[in-house]
Amino acid sequence: MSSRSRLPGVLGVIAATMGLFFSAFSTHDYALHLDRQLHATNCSFVPGLTGPESGDNACKAAMYSSYSAIFRDKYWGGVPISLFAMGAYAFFLALAVYLLTAGNSASKRSWQAYGLASLTPIIASAVMFTISVTKLGQFCKLCVGLYVASGILAASGVWALVAAGGKRGAGAVGGSATDTIPDAGPPVPAGYPLHAYAMPEPARSPLGPSSLVPTGSWLAPLSLFPMLGVFAVAPALVYTSSLPDYRPMLLSCGKIVDLNEKTGALVKLKTLRPVQPALTFEDPLCPTCKAFHKRLQTEEIFDRLDLTVAIFPLDSECNPMLDRPFHPGSCQLAKAFLCGDKIGKAREILDWSYDNQDELRDAGKAGKEIIRAKIREKFPDVDACIDDKETKKRLDRVLQFAVTNKIPISTPQMFLGETRLCEEDTDLGLRYVMGQLAPQVFQP
Amino acid sequence: MKLAHVLSLLAGVGLLVGVVSFVSVEVKAAEKRLTAPKKADAPVAATADHTEAPYCTPQFKSVLQRVVNACGLVGEESRRGCQPVDVKQFATISDEDFNALFAPLEQRGAIILFDDAGDKLDDGAKKLIMEKWEDRRLARYFFIVSRASKSGAAGMNKALSHKRANSVNFWLADQSKDPDLDKKVGMLWLGEEFAQLPKDYCDKWTNSRPGKPCNADAINRSAFISWVDCRL
Question: pLDDT tens-digit profile of A39-53?
Fold first, then answer.
């Protein structure tokens, strides 16, 4: 008996191994952050060979985005989707090994089931790819590795489907109590062990060498999908059951001493449906503040906050707490923000600062006048106010407010009511901590 | 069962066990780090605090500390001001050295001038006091150090010095409406026997009567005011 093409199996093994490899690195990076600290992340097509990268990269951006995990409000950090990928690729690896080793004895239904099942990862990849393009605007290399793996797996699946179909593929797929061996031979009684059935004539597959293929029963596809589900879900179940209890840590970062700033120096931002009083310390040129601000928006938290902003530029031009400018130019933006408050444009100016942060950071480094020109160009109506003595005094009072409350010189910081959100909970754990400390934010 | 079935079954079970073990180990390792973080893993950011200027020398701070403690700027006491005798006790330095402590505040502070035997603030004084008060930046304490010239009786000068300090303080209270004023403002009223200012302070320091005649007597009928950028 001549053999079927083993290429779908070979491709399946390669794809599943790749998928397992990339999803394992992704899971590792995610789990590393469960200690609430910052870590370098792997962001390479050959993770493991190149070391993890500290600082910002596309993989970190993807990880911190709201799309990298589910059930974020129930579990700290949520359940990373890479866990499902890992389980699924483990399943496909075992299945591909079967196809590879079974050769002709694998039933047609098994090939078809493999073909159909192997299309599922590429559907997930297509969704994630779309998110990368439309929401994140960048591609994480580990994710690209997974897209490629799912593509190869899908190719092997399609190959398997075509090969399984053979000349009578369409008819054979129907499956009934009188399933037939393709091309020739007597009807096969239902329930008869197909691999044991005598095969009269070998059928020629359009893609592989001629083979005599047992049709098999529907049990294969019917059992494969639940098994895929078990494999995909098992790592997530183990993950959630192993997670530490984060609740005691959420309140461990103290409270504000005196929320009441009597001179009106702080800025109240207008939000759509405020239900939770919150205070933030933000620097318009701080990348983490930008990420935090965007995260609050994408998680649909921002507009539920009754938000007061203490603008806190980490720039020694106006902030005497510093001996050098961490974010040169942010004093100009902070003053513009305070001026914007007078004409109802504070939120607009803050959003603009974050949306154009890279450009503004460069401008700030190039000189005070350069960033000032950018502000003037966009918001001419706040230009005169920036140099006003009153604006400087107001900014001083904001800084005094920070001093009175012994605020760490670090941005961003958020207080829910009086409770200080730990910095460790402002990224991966944000949705969880909001769910715990301010559940009304998520109520309709 | 065929070899392929056995192999794939073994592979499947092995892979599943491997994957869940990997997940479990990773999460447990994170939990271990979480409950016993390395010191290096928990950097502590500096805390927002009042400024500390270079003139905050140990000597300057010892004067500041005395005023802060004795004048009720810390704690719940509402006592205000220090008796000149207190200054005599702690200022065991020469007049020149005592004045030199405040010299670096030349740009930050100002001198409020009064009429001979007077303690009333004129318009220039009122304006300058508020200008300086509002230029707080991140300073913690506001100092009023009043003086009297040597002309006249010592007792009268002592009382006059006290009244001048109070005039500044009352004006601040009236204008700033700051409920925490008594936790910010420290006062020293120096009698004629203490650290008279030399005449060159007329030119070096901003005073409330610019362009008007200023001599050694006039500069000492005054109250020196300034935010002090020191931490204690």
Answer: 888 988 988 888 888
Is residue B135 within 8 A of residue B223, CB to CB? The reply is: no
Q: Provide the chain A residues 173-202 that lie in CB contact (below 8 A) with chain B.
A: 195
Architecture of domain B58-228: 2-Layer Sandwich (3.30)
Map out the domains of chain B as residue ranges.
3-41, 58-228
| CB neighbour burial string for B163-177, b if at least 16 within 10 angstroms, e if fewer | bbbbbbbebbeeebe
Q: Identify the structural domains of chain A with CATH numbers, from first to last.
A: 7-239 (1.20.1440.130), 267-442 (3.40.30.10)
Taking any CB pair shorter than 8 Å as contact, residues of chain B touching chain A are: 2-5, 7-9, 11-12, 15-16, 18-20, 22-24, 26-31, 33-35, 37, 41-42, 44-51, 134-138, 179, 229
Of the candidate ranges A139-148, A364-373, B156-165, B178-187, the one whose mean pLDDT is the lowest: B178-187
Question: Residue A184's pLDDT band (boundaries 50, 70, 90)?
Answer: very low
Residue B86 pLDDT grade (very low, low, confident, very high; cuts 50, 70, 90): low
What's the longest Cα–Cα distance across chain A?
Answer: 98
**A101 CB near a chain B CB, below 8 Å?**
yes
Distance CA(A55)–CA(A48), nearest Å, equals 18
Encode pLDDT of B135-169 as tens digits: 988 998 999 989 988 888 888 888 999 899 999 99
Q: Kindly report the number of other CB atoms within 10 A of residue B200's CB atom.
A: 10
Residues comprising chain B, all counted:
232
